[in-house]
Amino acid sequence: MAKTTDEANTDSRPTSAERGDQAEATLFARWRRSRLWRVASVVLAVVAIGLSSYYVVIKLVSSFRQIAWGHLQVRPWPVVISFIITLACVLLGVVVWGLVLRGVGVRLGLRACAQSHLLSIPGAYLPGYGWRYAGKAYLTQRQGIPLGLASCAVLVELIESEAARGVLAFTTVQQAFLGSFLGGALVPYVWGLRVLGWGALLVLPLALERGVAWAKRRGRRPWSDMNIDKGSLWLALGVMCFTFVLYGVGFSILLGAASALTLDGLAAAIFSTSSSLAISLLMFFVPAGLSVRESVIIYTLEGVFPAAMVTVGALVSRGVLVAAEVVGSLIGSWLALRGRRRSSPKG
Predict the structure, then answer these.
(1) pLDDT number for residue 243
(2) What is the domain extent for residue 287?
(3) Tally of structural domains, the chain
(4) Is 3 inside a domain boundary?
(5) Does any domain span residue 6?
(6) Most exposed of 72, 137, 224, 284 (fewest Cβ within 10 Å)?
(7) Measured between alpha carbons, how far is 15 from 272 in angstroms, rounded to an integer?
(8) Which residues contact 52 (CB under 8 A, 6 or more apart)?
């Protein structure tokens, strides 16, 4: 009788796999279920959108007074070219996601990576706490990858993306803007800080490898399930930097439609877009960084280009980005539908 009871107790204990599944299920669920976090995210989103929208509207009203409407000419080709470049950046995100997955030890086909990345884009426009990233983890799980491992991959991508945006922004920052920031205290150390930033970016995959090795020794799942491939993570960082430069080029084409664009102007555009993308990522509780991204662009380019040109360019750039992401989502939907038709049995 005692033996039977012991066997029943033994059978009722969760296995190591079940404990791992529980860890995967609660990786991000705890903070998602927190009422405090839900309330705080709504309040922060309302405050951020309200303040940034107020700033953008003030600049827009001021810009309308500066525009010579009688001499205004609409040129569609810069918008079309900017859209093509922005769409290329959206599609390059598929390559980045595939490299990040490979960097954490997951082998997933290009079509599956495209579906999970592109179909998660609409989640960025939902209010809340990063639905795009939760959706990407869920869609990757649908491809047969454990949810915990997919969530870890999303977190690695976020860390690398934020680091790449920050380093690229500091590399292309204008001396005039840096001189007005913190009273110009960083100007004498700018080159040293740039070298330090790129060095930290190169060390990041090594630090992730050390962190996973520590998790394996401690048995911390799902972090211990990752097998770090530093080469893939370094390559992902390179593609990220290239993508963010392309974003800046696309925006500079919009600015160049109104005036001649120099190399300094191109660097300023890359700095502005990289900074806006970095701050938008930090404010992931704001849907798609609406108005936050535009306010950062206007603020960082103030004094470099005419205020009217920058304000209108920032708003047009938002429209271009939305259009490119809509097309990207449609491509993801088409790939998913085509995959279902292929997998469905033929009658």
Answers:
(1) 96
(2) 14-343
(3) 1
(4) no
(5) no
(6) 72
(7) 51
(8) 291, 292, 294, 295
